[in-house]
Design goal:
The complex is a heterodimer of chains A (about 550) and B (about 270). Chain A is of the alpha/beta class and about 550 residues long. Chain A contains 23 helices and 20 strands. In chain A, strand 1 and strand 2 form a beta hairpin. In chain A, helix 7 runs parallel beside helix 8, helix 15 packs across helix 16 and helix 18 packs parallel to helix 19. With about 270 residues, chain B is mostly helical. Chain B has one domain: Orthogonal Bundle (MetI-like fold), CATH 1.10.3720. In chain B, helix 1 packs across helix 2. The radius of gyration of chain B is 22 Å and the shape is elongated. Classes of the chains: A alpha/beta (about 550), B mainly alpha (about 270). The interface between A and B is medium-sized, with 29 and 21 residues.
Chain lengths: ~550, ~270
């Protein structure tokens, strides 16, 4: 039973519909999965990992089709099965957990109704039985108040809780195979741990087979028995997790492994200059009656990088909104090179606006889809510097060269004709076009793959060295902090809990919250999660 | 992703729709050349039957029906196009400005539109035209203003989705004024639904003008116009003659044709699959 093959994929080919007909995006991938085994699928976006995950259920997204190969699930050939046959399998024997649980639940139905629906539709259980099965799963997944939580609506749960509720929904029918599609990518590191631990525990208890799709190597190291690395719809290599981590064979795999080793050159300790380029001084802010920032102060010195770290809801993005003047503070002030900035961006002069530029997290929504790269970069040049015509064109080209994009090839493109990393580079170029002194980077790499992230971070460091820029770098990712920061500010619930030079921050003793953050960053070590959970359990057991 | 394919083939209804629109546009532009007689020229007796001289007979004053149908295309369709354009200029601009400026500007425009829309449109138009008189400019302005309320709501609704995007915020932070935000950042992104609405709105405007003309306060005689042509010759219907229904049919066919095209365009811009 243990070695029995559950899922067998041979020569899978998937095509996607594009402007010029159908193009192949998965080029003949093989995949085997035994009962009770967890297989990690890893790759950048566009590597076809999600498409393969869906194909394992005999499903292709809108605008895609399975064009070749065989997907055999426990003796049933899914590619040729009728819709009714496939429907009978899905939900009951094969289940799917999506990346964003918040977007995948129906907001107007209670969780318990959505969890029981699968079981009742398939006629596996009656409603009452399905309810008790769901509640049992809520308990096993360590959701708070398992007996009552199901009777709430999705918006009443946190992201981590929803992700676990979705896992419960997938498991109600005790499926033999679950496809997890990046279930923790949208979560904070501290929440991610809870979800990873809960998923792993339940999957092991029930001996469920799983395909675990992710771009995060450290996560896959904790979850999977075997790892398959994908690149552009083709397999790069496959090996048991420990073997893969210890001795990756292919260059591409090794490059994935190496990303996390990027480090900025240590800069000389702060030359204590009287006036910091940007000072946030005792700032408090609120949305209506809800206070979101409380007495936040920090200073950024010229040519240096200040990282603001914290989970979502810690106030780090709000701090950026205060600095840019989008949210006027209720108390305190922001000074640029010693000069107090007006609270609202509306009252700031063009010159003041020019000197602080902002790079957004989602390059997709930060670039106007109807403007060409020429317009996007040309506008700030013309607007701030009054440069027009030939000289403007020359500057746009110089900017494109500085972000390592070939001007002739890209200048007339629209944002949708660029990849995610290229879009983010355009976002950087737009900020540079204004010739700023301070650049605020709001989670600029959190939507990108590791390799692309490395490229962006290298570019930012390089630009800093050449142009003497100062960065406020907002992030929740401590690996990024290690790579790029000079000073670090840790925020929690609208307050600064720790401020230190990078070297000091990563050296104990820490503030307890910093400790929690640091220990929650997944390590490239298959035993890390077990060790951490054991440690935390021991600490909880011990009287403090 | 998405059906962004460059029209591999058009559905037959769309081809029919485009053909109808092209035919009407041709008739409107070249009415003076292709019409056998003048627009207001009395050429024969009243209510002549169809013959080789008068293909579609003559009307209640003895004017050639075919010629008047062709000139009617120019008048009715021309006025409808101008009215719709005006409605979009006013309603679209007000809607997007309300979105960008927000606050009391948005409140003012929105409540004003609520009040205007609370009164049944045809009744309101009748009332205003009775007060203002039935000259063509006042007809155009009254209908355009009343239709602009609908355009305002659509433009404001779709603009709301765009104004929260980061690129609009980026432009605000750059220090751009509201004109740049409206015309460079928001308008290009709300064009597809607005263009689709333009087609629909055109049909409604067209029908409103015809209805008003039929009621006698729209386009005034002797100008050829399909709505009043139906009214003038309505008595023929009781004799079993289909001639008075021809202008009505002309209105119906154009409406159907435009809707074919608009449906297809809406379908494309909404990103629905077939």
């Amino acid at each position: 039973m243990a070695d029995e093959l559950l899922l067998n994929i041979r020569g899978l080919k998937v095509e996607a519909r594009g402007e010029a007909g159908w193009t192949e995006i998965v080029h003949g991938v093989d995949l085997d999965l035994k009962r009770g085994e967890i297989l990690g699928l890893i790759g950048e976006s566009g590597s076809g990992k999600s498409t393969i995950g869906l194909a394992a259920m005999g499903f292709a997204r809108d605008g895609c089709r399975i064009s070749g190969g065989a997907v055999t699930f426990d003796g049933v050939e899914l590619t040729t099965a009728s819709d009714a046959e496939r429907r009978a399998l899905r939900g009951s024997r094969i289940a799917y957990v999506a990346q964003s649980a918040a977007a995948s639940f129906n907001p107007s139905l209670k969780l318990i109704d959505q969890c029981t629906e699968v079981a009742t539709v398939h006629g596996k259980m009656d409603r009452r039985l399905a309810q008790s099965a769901s509640i049992d799963l809520f308990k096993r997944l360590h959701l708070p108040k398992p007996a009552e939580i199901g009777f709430r609506y999705p918006h009443q749960l946190s992201g981590g809780q929803l992700q676990r509720a979705m896992t419960a929904m997938a498991m109600v029918c005790r499926p033999e195979l679950i496809v997890f599609d990046e279930p923790t990518t949208a979560l904070d590191v501290t929440t991610q741990i809870e979800v990873l631990a809960a998923i792993r525990e339940v999957v092991r208890q029930f001996g469920t087979s799983a395909i675990y799709i992710t771009h995060d190597l450290a996560v896959v190291a904790q979850m999977a028995d075997r790892v398959k690395v994908l690149l552009k719809g083709e397999e790069v290599e496959e090996a048991p997790t420990r073997t893969m981590l210890a001795t990756p064979k292919e260059d591409y795999t090794r490059s994935l492994w190496a990303v996390r080793s990027l480090r900025a050159e240590a800069k000389p300790a702060t030359v204590p200059r009287a006036v910091p380029i940007l000072a946030v001084d005792r700032v408090s802010a609120s949305y209506g009656a809800i206070s979101v920032l409380d007495d936040v102060s920090f200073a950024l010195h010229p040519g240096r990088t200040l990282a603001v770290v914290g989970e979502s809801g810690s106030g780090k993005s709000t701090t950026a909104r205060v600095i840019t003047g989008l949210l006027p503070p209720t108390r305190g002030e922001v000074r640029l090179d010693g000069e107090v900035l007006p609270a609202s961006y509306r009252q700031r002069s063009k010159e003041q606006l020019r000197r602080i530029q902002f790079i957004y997290q989602m390059a997709d929504t930060a670039l106007n889809p109807t403007q060409t790269i020429r317009d996007i970069l040309g506008r700030p040049i013309e607007f701030y510097l009054g440069v027009r015509g030939k000289e403007k064109e020359e500057r746009i080209r110089a900017l494109l060269r500085s972000i390592e994009l070939e001007p002739d090839k890209y200048i007339d493109r629209l944002p949708r004709e660029l990849s995610g990393g290229q879009k983010q580079r355009i976002g950087i170029a737009r900020a540079l076009a204004a010739e700023p002194q301070v650049v605020i980077c709001d989670e600029v790499t959190s939507a990108l793959d590791q390799l692309v992230t490395e490229g962006i971070l290298k570019l930012l460091l390089d630009l800093q060295k050449r142009l003497g820029l100062s960065y406020v770098f907002i992030t929740h990712d401590l690996a990024t902090v290690e790579a790029i920061a000079d000073e670090v500010v840790v925020m929690q619930r609208g307050r600064v809990v720790e401020a230190a030079a990078k070297a000091d921050l990563f050296r104990p003793p820490h503030h307890p919250y910093t400790e929690l953050l640091l220990s929650s960053v997944p390590q490239m070590d298959p035993d890390w999660l077990d060790r951490l959970l054991a440690e935390r359990a021991a600490n909880e057991g011990a009287p403090t | 992703m998405g059906p962004s394919s460059r029209l591999p083939h058009l559905p037959p209804t769309v081809i029919v729709g485009f053909a109808i629109i092209a035919l009407y546009a041709f008739a409107a532009v070249f009415a003076g050349v292709i019409a056998p007689y003048g627009e207001t020229q009395v050429v024969a007796g009243e209510f002549e039957p169809w013959s080789s001289a008068y293909w579609l007979g003559t009307d209640n004053l003895g004017r050639d029906m075919l010629s008047r149908l062709l000139y009617g295309a120019r008048n009715t369709v021309g006025i409808a196009v101008v009215t719709t354009l005006l409605a979009f200029a006013v309603g679209g601009a007000a809607g997007l400005v309300a979105v960008v400026l927000g606050g009391w500007v948005d409140q003012f425009f929105s409540r004003l539109v609520d009040v205007l829309m609370a009164i049944p449109q045809l009744v309101f138009a009748l009332l205003l035209l009775t007060i203002l008189g039935t000259a063509i400019p006042s007809l155009v302005i009254v209908i355009a203003l009343l239709d602009a309320t609908r355009v305002f709501r659509l433009a404001r609704a779709v603009g709301m989705n765009i104004v929260v995007m980061d690129y609009v915020e980026a432009a605000k932070l750059r220090g751009e004024g509201w004109r740049w935000l409206v015309f460079h950042e928001i308008l290009p992104n709300v064009m597809p639904p607005l263009v689709a609405e333009f087609g629909l709105r055109f049909c409604f405007v067209f029908l409103t003008i015809s209805a008003l003309s039929f009621l006698g306060i729209g386009i005034q005689p002797p100008t050829a116009d399909w709505g009043s042509m139906v009214r003038d010759n309505a008595s023929l219907i009781s004799f079993g003659d289909t001639t008075p229904l021809l202008p009505a049919a002309a209105i119906a066919i154009l409406t159907v044709g435009v809707n074919f095209v608009v449906d297809w365009f809406l379908h494309r811009s909404s990103g629905l699959k077939d």
